[in-house]
Amino acid sequence: MFGVAHFVHLATALSAVAAVMPLLPVATVALPAVAELVLVRGQPLAALALAALHIGAYTVCDDLIYREIEPTMPYILSLGVFGGMTYFRSPLQGVLLGPMLLALLSVAYTLHRDMVA
């Protein structure tokens, strides 16, 4: 769309890492593509449009999605993902089931705390 065909795989890999380990904002995934558009291809307007779309989507969509989710620590989420990847045979299965098991443990703790108190 913006003439950035060489960074498709890099952007996909960075998006996956940013989703699993939320240490950096998701909009930073666009920085390599913006740099290529400005420095290599000489298209600053396309780079500005790409950056604006990423930042706009990041600010609007994250607020809409995270408003419904109670806060959780990124460390615990990453621990669930990597723990699941090491425990289960298939890493994809571990990525899905690791955080679910941690959420189940959290729900069990909350239920126990509410029943005892």
UniProtKB/TrEMBL annotation:
Topology term for the membrane: Multi-pass membrane protein
InterPro entries registered for this protein in UniProt: AI-2E-like
Keywords: Membrane, Transmembrane, Transmembrane helix
Localization: Membrane
Transmembrane segments: 94-111
GO cellular component: membrane
Superkingdom assignment: Eukaryota
Similarity annotation: Belongs to the autoinducer-2 exporter (AI-2E) (TC 2.A.86) family.
Protein name: Uncharacterized protein
Organism from which the protein derives: Monoraphidium neglectum
